[in-house]
User: What shape does this take?
Amino acid sequence: MQIEDTHTKQWKFSTKSKYAYVPQKGLTEKLVREISTRKNEPAWMREYRLKALEIYTQKKMPRWGADLSGIDFNNIYYYLKPEADQASKWEDLPEDIKRTYDYLGIPEAEKKFLAGVSAQYESEVLYKSIQENLTQRGVIFLDTDSALQKYPEIFREYFGKLIPAGDNKFAALNTAVWSGGSFVYVPKNVKVAMPLQAYFRINAQNMGQFERTLIVAEEGSSVHYVEGCSAPIYSTSSLHAAVVEIYVKKGAKVRYTTIQNWSPNVYNLVTKRARVEANGAMQWIDGNLGSRVTMKYPSCHLMGEGAKGEVLSIAYAGNGQHQDAGAKMIHLAPNTSSRIISKSIAKGGGRTSYRGLNYIRKGAAGSKTKVVCDALILDPASRSDTYPTMRIDEKKVRVEHEATVSKIGEEQIFYLTSRGIKKERAEALIVNGFLESVIKELPLEYAVEMNRLITMEMEGSVG
Assistant: This one.
């Protein structure tokens, strides 16, 4: 099938790349010091990493969520540096790396749709560009390593304040060995009309990728940041443990879109959190289609009156996959509002889980929160679970929660197949309709891509 070749090209395609630095597998204090030294970091960051390493070794593995017993932490490369310098033109990249990104279509996307592009390969960002007019207006779009060097005061003010190393075991791991990621700073009242995109590629076997992303949107500004992820299939496990911190100042708007298509050997364990001030708005759009395991719960801390938070989530789990995803909304000021819409599909023995927290603190009067969880189970071997937590400490609020679990009706399939549509295609059409309320929130080109990926999953190209 041609569709199989198209869908799995990101998983089947890999290159034999050259590396400037390849440490031994496993995590040691020596490696953490080596990473900091190679990046020429200030002393405070080196000490920050070492303290995080202590926290990581002391914290136990989560006793809830997905099964993580398949990760061999001693068989992971925690840092790999490609034999290439960062470039601002595609033609300046080494041939093996350029061939990978050409194959995935990133240069074409940059030309058509984007205000800036970042491309990370293993542990380092090797390509970065931004439209000149945005630079002239004070917008900063850098890899996180460069931001630490060029804007140390801004960096230190925000780094690790929303998600400290002690937040959870994998946040501590990221803080100890982080490398790459994106730093975005949008000045007061500046509107970034086109998306900024980062693309994260794991190419090596047994690779651990630990990018760190930090976004600051000043008062009255707006920005849309998009990230995509992929990796080739290997017989052994890889690990992706990112941390994302977002600051949405008064009246600012930030949209963060993830379209994840990791290969089935990747454990994807991510911590994402936004701080939203008065009348600010934060929207997470989360598309989880790949990986062996995903544990990810984007959150909004609604700190100022009138702050808004939203999570629109899609999860697809096929054979051998567990998508444990959800959201957290923390209402800490009056008249704040939040909405969580979670759509999940389980097929071929896959498992999806919604795990969420909605908290309204006493004094946050006039606040509103709504959760909608819809699960579609396509066969008896698959499973869907919902673990919602509501903690309401204020009386003058509005709280809504609804959840449905359903399967594709035989009459729907019969209606479509009787008109000449093959069964697999009919199921794909029904699933795309089920997901429409979330997909329509994407910009057109990303909505088309999401529909394409879902259709390919449904038409039997994976597993």
